[in-house]
Specification:
By secondary structure, the protein is of the alpha/beta class. Helices cover 36% and strands 23% of the residues. Helix 2 packs across helix 15. The protein is globular. The mean pLDDT is 96. Bound molecules: zinc ion (ZN). The site of zinc ion (ZN) has 6 residues, from loops.
């Protein structure tokens, strides 16, 4: 893979002390960062490098992390924009999914990856069809959490139980993507689609293999009603009874929470994934982000699938996060742009168990980096770079998206990827799904 040097005007490291370096450089070798510092102290001569990218006005940030999505659901973008979650799932999405073929999913994933790269996402946690996700990652190598989905309270739900005896196969598939880019998570869909026995089995297996558990939690009023009627408690209390809430839990949504729920989430060190665009569009509600942060819950960001949120752009979610909390709490001080950027980077890495690997630009971590064009009118003037990135920057300002040391996206073009062909096939297959 070789040795690369990037020279940029600024590096926003997102490290523990939130260092912002000026006239800075990042060196990496075989995908691992070997130097982060000022340009005048690079410990290597220029001849040492195979490639040198000089962006005198560039601003480097860590690659963004989308901690909850269903990548290939982009096949259904715009299909059902105006339904509540229950009807959306039962009347539209599940019937369409029953018609999906492997090739649909492969091209859905590939098109989603193009969208992610062009919007600065380098790592994502997917919750959809495992095998086709892996096939797509072999073609476009992003960093991913691949979730093995489980839901047994649906027709033919018993087939999901077989997956527990097939875990070795999932590990092998994840490992078949080069570069250690893919990790496996267990994905009980939600409390209303999974039996208690299934959730208990997930606890046992997650403990045994130290696997993250990726789940939809407290997303709708209906879900809370379901929990109260069926179990006599809130969804969070029910999940806590089962013992599934801990630091390995990646809990998407977490909207309808009472004070006791928030305390439990903080005590159990659960990771909550805020998906503001999807939650607003499905009219599910708004995560109490400020209250969760104050209870020491790790909050990170996700888009959810493009069938509900319509976009896989994490810049939108950073901005929405701050604006929504301020609108709801009438507090213009919290959270701020820096907190939103951390949610989209290092806090996402923590949630996915990748804190030692990505989420900040530091020596020893993987070179997952987004380089922004500091000459963009949206990033000027330079009074407050982080504020510009969260409130005003758009993906049009991205110069490079680098994953594991490889610049997969450069100045509007995808490296070694026939994007036109992928999008043509994707679009054709998506239209055919709806017409059949
Ligand atoms: Zn979801």
């Amino acid at each position: 893979m070789g040795r690369t040097l990037i020279k940029a005007k600024y590096i926003i490291t997102c490290n523990k002390t939130f260092d912002i370096l000026r006239k800075a450089a990042i060196a990496f070798e075989d995908g691992i960062i070997t130097y982060v510092g000022t340009e005048d102290k690079i410990p290597f001569s220029t001849s040492y490098f195979d490639e040198i990218l000089v962006e005198e006005e560039g601003i480097a940030i860590p690659g963004l992390i989308n901690a909850h999505t269903h990548a290939a659901m982009n096949l259904f973008r715009g299909v059902c924009d105006d339904l509540p979650l229950k009807e959306w799932l039962e009347k539209k999405i599940w019937p369409l999914e029953s018609k999906l073929e492997s090739e649909d999913l492969l091209y859905g994933n590939l098109a989603a990856f193009l969208e992610m790269l062009s919007t600065g996402t380098t790592t994502f946690a997917d919750f959809y069809y495992f095998n086709e996700l892996i096939d797509a990652l072999k073609i476009i190598p992003l960093r991913a959490i691949a979730t093995v989905a489980f839901l047994d309270l649906v027709p033919d739900g018993e087939i999901y139980w077989k997956r527990f005896s097939e875990l070795k196969k999932y590990f092998e598939l994840a490992n078949s993507v080069e570069g250690g880019l893919v990790k496996v998570a267990l994905g009980p869909h939600a409390i209303y689609t999974c039996s208690r026995q299934l959730l208990e089995k997930i606890v046992e297996v997650s403990e045994k293999y130290r696997l993250p558990v990726h789940m939809h939690v407290s997303e709708t009023v209906d879900e809370i009603k379901f929990a109260k009627e069926k179990f006599g408690k809130t969804a969070i209390e029910y999940l806590d009874d089962i013992g599934i809430l801990n630091e390995r839990m990646i809990a998407a949504h977490c909207i309808h929470l009472d004070e006791n729920d928030i305390r439990i989430l903080g005590d159990r060190r659960v990771n909550c994934v805020h998906c503001p665009s999807s939650n607003l569009k499905l009219a599910d509600g708004i995560m109490p982000v400020s209250r969760l942060l104050k209870a020491n819950v790790n909050v990170c960001l996700g888009t959810d699938g493009a069938a509900s949120a319509n976009s896989l752009n994490i810049f939108n979610e950073m901005r929405n996060t701050v604006l929504l909390q301020r609108g709801v709490n009438l507090d213009p001080t919290f959270p701020n742009a820096r907190e939103a950027l951390l949610m989209a980077t290092i806090d996402g890495a923590k949630a996915l168990g990748l804190e030692e690997t990505v989420g900040s630009i530091e020596v020893g971590k993987k070179a997952d980096i987004v380089l922004l064009d500091g000459r963009s009118p949206r990033l000027l003037p330079e009074h407050n770079l982080v504020s510009n990135i969260v409130y005003s920057c758009t993906p049009a300002d991205i110069l490079y998206t680098i994953v594991n040391g490889k610049a997969l996206y450069r100045r509007g073009k995808f490296s070694n990827i026939d994007a036109d062909k992928i999008l043509e096939i994707f679009s054709g297959r998506a239209l055919k799904l709806l017409s059949a």
